[in-house]
Structure formats: structure tokens, C-alpha cells
Known about the structure:
Blueprint: H1 2-31, H2 36-54, H3 56-60, H4 64-90, H5 94-101, H6 103-116, H7 122-139, H8 148-170, E1 174-177, E2 183-186, H9 191-213, H10 216-221, H11 225-252, H12 258-261, H13 265-277, H14 283-299, H15 301-311
Antiparallel strand pairs: 1-2
Amino acid sequence: xxxxxxxxxxxxxxxxxxxxxxxxxxxxxxxxxxxxxxxxxxxxxxxxxxxxxxxxxxxxxxxxxxxxxxxxxxxxxxxxxxxxxxxxxxxxxxxxxxxxxxxxxxxxxxxxxxxxxxxxxxxxxxxxxxxxxxxxxxxxxxxxxxxxxxxxxxxxxxxxxxxxxxxxxxxxxxxxxxxxxxxxxxxxxxxxxxxxxxxxxxxxxxxxxxxxxxxxxxxxxxxxxxxxxxxxxxxxxxxxxxxxxxxxxxxxxxxxxxxxxxxxxxxxxxxxxxxxxxxxxxxxxxxxxxxxxxxxxxxxxxxxxxxxxxxx
Length: 312
């Protein structure tokens, strides 16, 4: 039964990466028609509402401390998503942006080292120069021409790394040191409740950014059913469904190889961008994307090795 659950979990996680790739297309279509931060505010508020209905019982049992920890994670995620959507709005290549954003996975151990003094695995120090080589190939194609969109994507990757670290800590039990020096066990935040609070907080953060930087009266006056369609599609399929399926898949087995499977997201996104928007890349840009993908695999080498052993 465990083998069956593990296989089911892996198939569902592949579906999650497909949903994530499709979500990039929905979001790009939306920001072509409406202010990007306003779109994110509507998308995440709606997604939080949908997921909140599913996790209402967990939310009712949450303590104030758990809500506060979840809110702090959501603020960081909101900042990362703000950078990401700005990159998607002004960037010229969706597929390239997906690979740049995925650098956040490589940077997780580095952030954990800088912020929480954790010792990163040796594979991190191999993956970083490989990722840097890929980044150079993307930026130096035809001479140095780093676009604003690329800078937004890189900024989002750095903040995503902090989010991944904080989210993992919130979702798992941990032993922490209190102000008086005593050690105490901090309980994990239930997955659905954590995700719901985080999604609502992202909606709040991006709404504040939109109020400061975007013209709401004009956006509301020009709002159309097509815009609403992209918001609903992104909120339900690209956000609520994606996180729900991911949470369910990871609950099926502790031996899930999700950390490996999830690196498929930029590959799907790049392929979808080719067929959806007719995007193309030069050989140098493709080489850069492949180098970044290789860095993701190197960074997760221990999981890759276990996955290969399981399949063989």
C-alpha cells in the first residue's frame, strides 16, 4: 500500500507542476490587461477564500501564535510574489522567467545559513556556480543586457528562498529557545490553515502595493468579464487547486520525492510559453536555462539519487 501511495503522490506532484506551468500562462494573460499588483490582490484573496472553506475547521482551532507565524510567512511570500508579478508584467520571456525564479530553490540553503545558522549540504556549493553560469548565459547573450524583468525575477528568487525556509519551519514541529533561555516545543501549523492564512496575507500585501502604485479608479472602470475570467482561473486552478493537490500529495507518503519532481515547473512553463505565446530563445539562452535546471538537480542530488534507486 505504501508503494501505491508513493506512486500516487508522485503522479499528483507532476500534476501540480503542470498546474503551476499553466498558472504562469493565466497570469501573463491577466497582466496584459490589468494592473499586475491589483490582479495578484484579487487572485490571492479569492484563492484564500476558496481554500479557507476547505480548511475552516483547522482555522477555528488555530492559536494566536500560529496565526502570527503564518502571517509573517505570508508577508514574505507577498513580497516575493510582488517582485514575481512585476517581472512577469515587464519581462519579455515567460520561460526564461520561470528558470530565473526557480533559482530560489538553490538559494534556500544559503538563506538558511545566513538567517538561521544552518549548515548547508555540500551539494549547495556545487549547485551555486552552475546556477551562476546559467544566469550569466541568460544575461550575457549578445552582450550584457540584463532586463528589468530579469532583475525582478532574481529579486523574487531571493525572497522566495527566505519564504521556503520560513514556510518549512512553520509547517513542522520545532524546538525553540524562549526568552528566559528555556527550550520549548513549538507545534507546527496545519498545512491547509497555514496556506489559507498565507494566501490571504499575500492578497493584503499586494493590495497595499497596488493602492500605492496603481490607478484603481481607471482599472475598475476598465474592468471586463475577460479580466474576471483570468482572475478566477488563476485563483481556482492556478492557486487554490494547485496548493490543495500539493498538500494532499505530500500527505500520502513521507517518502515522496516532491523536491525532485517540483523542479519540472520551469520546464513545463517554458514549453507552454512556446505554444501559448509563440516564444523562442536563442541557443545561448536555452543553454542558460539548462544550466539552471542542472543546478536544481545538483542541489537536490540526495533526493535524485534516492529516486533513481527507487525506480531502478
